């Protein structure tokens, strides 16, 4: 007992009561009409409606956010009694995520709550409603910061996520972007009266997570410009007709995602957006072409046929860039871009093709001071016409391999019969639901990979090769399924052995085609690949059975179609200048002769490089001038150096000998990376190497750009206007290559 007769418990309770009284004096928020402080802990509050005890935070950092969330979750019916105060509070950004996840299904059905006094607007969506959010977006890394859509500056809205405002955003606009505030005219948002039809944008606003839907973006608004640009990109990338923007489903989607956005008409995209995008991308590619090392650009060209039997002439550029402004941190030095596509007549001639190509070369290459390099094509008439003229052309290696293998397959009737049986069997399985189910059961029973059979395309031997490989993989299941399903096509034991031999013979040719069709393959790999395939054919005579006729045809076709390539100077120089091969594939006599040829080629390059344009298209040797316009003294020093006592004949020979004496690199190394490192030590030899190593051996990478969408027929739709079709193809190919930066 204390002296005054009170117990310690009574004293402690009295102290807590006095502390609570002091705290209550500081409680100004109207949310305290629904809560009271816990009698034993001032950091907690008790709900007056359900008596739940709710923590307000830790000591020194307490707030009412959790109390508002509790009312929003458990007692939404009391919100209207506060004359809209809690409804407006809960619509602020700190509470939007909770509201949208827990109450969207309930609140979208009841956009307003009617009380006895008057109807009060209920927050149908918890998201920022200030017009300032038309000019800012929340930073994904830090929700307390925003990014200005006009200048890209990052602005802090406060330190505590529960106490963020928009005053700083308004000050930023007033200080840096005062002009945009004049275009924003405030409007009052009122609830729709009962019985009045609500537009789609207002109907979906309860589920939408965007801004005030009553105010449309002006045309120059950064968000509107970005959406329009993305729609134009979609039209080009997917080759959609311009009438696509009138589709009802697409318009409903946009109205839901961004009700403030007004979609332009199809004529805007066809007359303004796409032509403007085409001009911008074209300028970027032309500036990128000027970065070509040694000022040489190579090309792949061919005739592409659409699914509407229209024929198009295509021209794709390939060059090497060590320091690119478009791809500043990219380790891949191989660059490419589609320059032009043009529809041609079915009865085209070699001369008409040559005139079209020369017109494109003038517009893209020679007019900027660059040089036309080697043109790779799979069309014999194009190659013959170019070689007869002043241009250099080589045959596509992958196309040549296709001709060799097709000839070999047709040379042996037994192989053709085997492919016919396999083709019919796969077709029957793919069409029969019962056969598919039986095959799946047998795959599980015999623990085979659950793969589907492959139906080949008779004109493409590599698809026939993959079809046979899949049948061999599923041999056990195929045999049993064929018997149980009463198939007429039964594969005998001898045919299985022949099938294995055919696959074994075709496998190195399939690997060679894939290797030479990669993005980073170069002209230097052709001679090594020819030697590898010839050696492999000699080994196949001992490793296979029943296909000797096919192997003899392969060997004869390799000689007739590729023997000239082994003595072509362009392929020889490319192989010598590849640090992975050098002179290792040539005899001693050939190596000595080719070494002297390389030295002479380097001397010719050094003698002509003083008079021709350099890689960036600027004229070399032009004297620099100071502010007074007089010739710089240092340019005279450069002339004195050129006339010095150094022996010009000795420098190229020393470069070549030093290079050939180094060890050969591994096959996995990139030759262009090697020459980038040697550029300062051997500038002339590095420039010569880039001239040959920048040329691809195949046009397959370019063909892939035109073959992917043919399944859905999007390349030849009649609703596409042909004058726009060529621009759309140009954008479809090049937009990803420049990373959509235009």
UniProtKB/TrEMBL annotation:
Main location: nucleus
GO molecular function: DNA binding; protein dimerization activity; zinc ion binding
UniProt keyword list: DNA-binding, Metal-binding, Nucleus, Transcription, Transcription regulation, Zinc, Zinc-finger
GO cellular component terms listed in the entry, alphabetical order: nucleus
Domain of life: Eukaryota
Matches recorded under SUPFAM superfamilies: beta-beta-alpha zinc fingers, Hermes dimerisation domain, Ribonuclease H-like
KW Transcription (keyword) present: yes
InterPro entries: HATC_C_dom, RNaseH-like_sf, Znf_BED, ZnF_BED_domain_contain, Znf_C2H2_sf
Localisation per UniProt entry: Nucleus
Domain BED-type: 26-82, 127-184
This protein's record includes keyword Metal-binding: yes
Protein name: BED-type domain-containing protein
